[in-house]
Please model this.
Amino acid sequence: MNFCIIGGDLRNFFLAQLLSKEKQEVKLYGFDKLENFKECEKYDKMMDSSDIIILPIPFSKDSKYVNMPFSNTYIPIKEIVYHLENKIIFVGNIHQELKEELHRKNSQVIDFMQKEEFAVLNAIPTAEATIEIILKNTKKILQNSNCLIMGFGRIGKVLAHKLKGLSAKITCMTTSEEETAWAIVYGYETLTIKNMQNNCTKLKQYDIIINTIPKGIFKEELKEIRKETLLIDLSSKPYGIDRKIVEQEKINFIEALGLPRKISTSNIS
Model:
């Protein structure tokens, strides 16, 4: 099989190296910013001559161009789609409308982010990068720090486990009875969103608050957070924390989105 990898972060670049070590034919495009990297031909020719196309995670950041952070060129999505007929396509976070269009072109689309096993493992670099952010942005040690994790999905579970391993005191704000049950099984303190909203003074006890819930949870409640508390938002739009109130209250806040991608784009030796 012939592989063509277009754009993405260093995960795609390293994937090309792994495939080459397995004696696979791999063509790579969209990394011209890297030292000593030269593209052998245009991306359209690469795609036309390849059976399997590997695209970025996420596929696009603006719904106009392919995500290529290591390239000085821009490829409109429409141009890429034109060459995606009768292909096997691996990609991340592709819109349903585009996926349906590719199916009409007799292409098979595998969205990494729809694969549970990938999403679970992807929580690991997110959790580890979050801990790095905490260590760099708080004066307290993690041991015995009171940590509130908002949401107990994939990322919440992994993050709680790793922070507990560092002897932090963990409370999980759960969004469903199922999440509450799992948090209790793992031995964490639990807090529901409703309970927090009815008694938001509870927020004063936490040294670190991390949100993973992608919907508006914290608004006026933010005024109860201590100034020295570190507040981190990992969620995607529409986010879980009101940015305007964070700024007004001068809260120690960090927006930490797309951490696996950021780790991959920063580890250039």
Remarks:
- The first strand starts at residue 2 and ends at 6.
- The chain has two domains: 2-114, 119-265.
- The radius of gyration is 21 Å.
